[in-house]
Amino acid sequence: QVQLVESGGGLVQPGGSLRLSCAASGFTFKSYAMSWHRQAPGKERELVAIISSGGGTITYAESMKGRFTISRDNDKNTVYLQMNSLKPEDTAVYYCKAHYGSGYWGKGTLVTVSS
Questions:
Q1: Number of C-beta neighbours around residue 111 at 10 A
Q2: Percent of the chain with pLDDT over 70
Q3: What pairs with residue 4 in β-bridges?
Q4: Under a CB-based contact definition with an 8 Å cutoff, are residues 87 and 79 in contact?
Q5: What does the pLDDT look like over 62-89, one tens digit per residue?
Q6: What is the structure's pLDDT at 64?
Q7: How much is the average pLDDT of 94-108?
Q8: Max CA-CA distance within the chain?
Q9: Under 8 Å CB-to-CB from 30, ≥6 apart: which residues?
Q10: Do residues 50 and 58 lie in contact, with contact meaning Cβ atoms separated by under 8 Å?
Q11: Range list of β-strands (E), 1-115
């Protein structure tokens, strides 16, 4: 049974940083690409970043380039999203996705950027 559990969200002031984690189980983590997505209130879910199985290929959404960093630890079956210089418009529920089979999603973690 595939499980993806996100953590690390919370309330942060503009300009601050957060590191999200997504712990994966139920599949061979090191063999599949992983990605982070987000959904802001009233908006559609959008891609934040995607990382290949070995971590050698990474793609970011244009608006996240330079502020967000995706990484993975295949020994810990975990993918991370380091978010710096956060803005109020980054407020959203952040989801990780396993590109295994038809794709699996976690339940998300809420990030609120507000003063």
A1: 22
A2: 100
A3: 24
A4: no
A5: 988 899 999 999 999 999 999 999 999 9
A6: 86
A7: 97
A8: 41
A9: 53, 54, 74, 77
A10: yes
A11: 3-7, 10-12, 18-25, 34-39, 46-51, 58-60, 68-73, 78-83, 92-98, 104-105, 109-113
